Predict the 3D structure of the following.
Amino acid sequence: MDVQAFDAYLLAHRERLLEDFKDFLRQPSVAATGQGIAEMAALVARRLTALGAKVQIVPTEGDAPPVVWAELGEGDKELLIYNHYDVQPPEPLELWESPPFEPTIRDGRIYARGASDDKGELVTRIHAIEAWLATQGKLPFKIKWLIEGEEEIGSPHLHAWVERHKAWLSKPDGRPIDGCLWEFGGFDEKGRFTLTMGVKGICYVELRVRGVSHDLHSSNAALAPNAAWRLVWALNTIKDADERILIEGFYDHVRELTPAEEAVLRAMPFEEEEIKAKWGIQAFVTGVSGFDAVKRLFFAPTATICGLSSGWQGTGVKTVLPAVASAKLDFRLVPNLTPEIVLDLLRKHLDRHGFADVEIHFLGGYRAEICDVDSPMVIAAERAAQRVYGQQPVKVLLSPGSGPMYSLSSFIGGVPVVAAGIAHPDSRAHSPNENAILQNYYDGMRYIGALIDEFARLS
Amino acid sequence: MDVQAFDAYLLAHRERLLEDFKDFLRQPSVAATGQGIAEMAALVARRLTALGAKVQIVPTEGDAPPVVWAELGEGDKELLIYNHYDVQPPEPLELWESPPFEPTIRDGRIYARGASDDKGELVTRIHAIEAWLATQGKLPFKIKWLIEGEEEIGSPHLHAWVERHKAWLSKPDGRPIDGCLWEFGGFDEKGRFTLTMGVKGICYVELRVRGVSHDLHSSNAALAPNAAWRLVWALNTIKDADERILIEGFYDHVRELTPAEEAVLRAMPFEEEEIKAKWGIQAFVTGVSGFDAVKRLFFAPTATICGLSSGWQGTGVKTVLPAVASAKLDFRLVPNLTPEIVLDLLRKHLDRHGFADVEIHFLGGYRAEICDVDSPMVIAAERAAQRVYGQQPVKVLLSPGSGPMYSLSSFIGGVPVVAAGIAHPDSRAHSPNENAILQNYYDGMRYIGALIDEFARLS
């Protein structure tokens, strides 16, 4: 690879490329409301077509945001890139220092909804490939690019889409694609570049209880069943005060760490006291610390109450006996413990404990995925980091967050994934004043160039 | 008593008195917001002065609504009347068929906020006394009238006010007042006139838990304490799924029914199946029925979750680990189990079970009160009912609801109380389209006349 020519191109075209970045950010594309989704899919398709890709806008289901599917280059070796063109809602608007869909540069950062998650990542990759094609000739392998429009609402149609288009998501002879570059990535609190090889799964449910037919005066409490109490008693059977999840059979689906996985976890920096200080607590739950805390954070399933709602929640007194009560619960999942298993075990558990009346409403889920931590994909990503950032990246076994990685890895034959990007700890994804550091974007394009080069060299 | 003259007066002045009733209803007097409170106190004071009473507007504390105190008539025998001039907030306004502070007559009912609770009762009594004075001469005993302005927010200053003015609330020689007519009363679902001699007490608290310093992404749940879980676990120690309150020492403060109280309870009609149908349930809690259900409703303490609040409560998914969680709890109390005892036992209970971090915020309370079920006050009220309604009234041992009855009964020497009024089951107190049946108001004035007459005759 002619690095000098590549870098010179980026410098020479910096202003135009930055304008292109801004065009992406000016177009709202809020999956939660549908705002600008169709326009954004068209914009992405036009841009990739201009890059020389064969592009299709492929429906998912009904009016749901389509997938933009692009193919560039030729070769037996194939790289899958996964991004998304949708963004989180920009609210609360009053907390933005500049309007969310008017990209604004201040102090070396570009501010806008999507500047980091995920338009910043998408644009970095598009611009790097443009520079490659302009300075290095054709791509050294085939790129398949899947850009979905529903990541911010839990990718509800992606898995079915992948299933329908499984042929595209493998090589012509049926072998799996050689590697996948994930949509996120970047730097940790200490400025260390990270590579992430997995995600926890998630099963998000709402539990709903109905007692009497309408809210009653609380003076009837001696005789009338109370939905809020039923909910409390049901929840209490799910996890005890020692943080042990009590759903029968739950832990049967938690496997041991492999030696390679454990090695990655042990090598990870973990600033325990800094995290506690940031959260304002003296101790982690159960008093766990050191490697036990790391193992727990990255490899223990969780059961979390995300919300509780019932009856009177305003200030002061209202003597009401609530007819309904609900809880939002998320279970973070490790490999083998799938959303389907959790739903089944939870239903059986509630029935067994006398809570057949507690309804379970499934609101979304992903399986966990941990990819090979030493795959050629990871090795290429490490070597590229050494070249561009001059440092050995921190390998993060998996993100404690979740995403549709299973659908684009194990489900399509075991494609090794790595997440490498341009985000930083103050990127404020999902929050007001989302931003990307411009230097990270410039370096990020050089990183993608190096990654293409390194991935091409590996067998 | 010259009943014919009394009735003729009411008929002759019907239109003017109805206008007077409307004047009371036109004046907003919302204790929760303070709207119109001062104006309403002044209006009540003017009206009672016009009746010939000696009236004072007496402060409670700071800017809080004052008490209107009036004295009429002379004599060793004394009757205390308790009413309140404040009303519930009118919201939700859109559900009113006519504006809440524009009294409107439709189908024999007068609609407005306060038409029943409690301006309807207050006006019925004022008009009856006016008719008495105009047709029967002076009152046969002394009336002391306490009209407070904070009943709808839990009478937070009434007890201290009574304590400060204890001399007014007994006879000149220190003996207790002979009887008290309570602010509410009326007819049950079957049109039976009721007399109520007591109220359950109440202790209303908010439990608050704080975990981490701010809401976190729920992917941190493996290490970060969750306020909502802490709240669930703490609540679960308070009452079990068999409806047994688990606070140590709680039931030590529940006395047995006296034979007279049990007799009243056994004589009360209790339409069990109709209540279940109205609430949309197959069975009462614990499967209780018959006299056990009656005893439970009127004589068992309760612990009720009135509200639960934490984290994300909107539609769909938000993967948040909430920093705070809260529950509104009301305990309905029987005699001897005071709000102070409950607060003390609850604090000790939570501490003992490892929940010293769960804050208890006391939002208000009343003691329970059960008055003599055969007092001269009750006998007079029964006889008046036989005269006016031609029926033996249903004696209700106590209201499962609450009110400041202790402060105006046991606390001032054991004044026997009876609640007798004009409300009906569709009065919609505290709800949109609050109303009173005009015939109940007309009959109610005749009832008050008969009650004055009967109370005068008893030693």
Observations:
- Chain B has a mean pLDDT of 96.
- Chain B has two domains: 3-199+369-457, 201-254+300-366.
- DSSP finds twelve helices and 20 strands in chain B.
- The first strand of chain B starts at residue 54 and ends at 58.
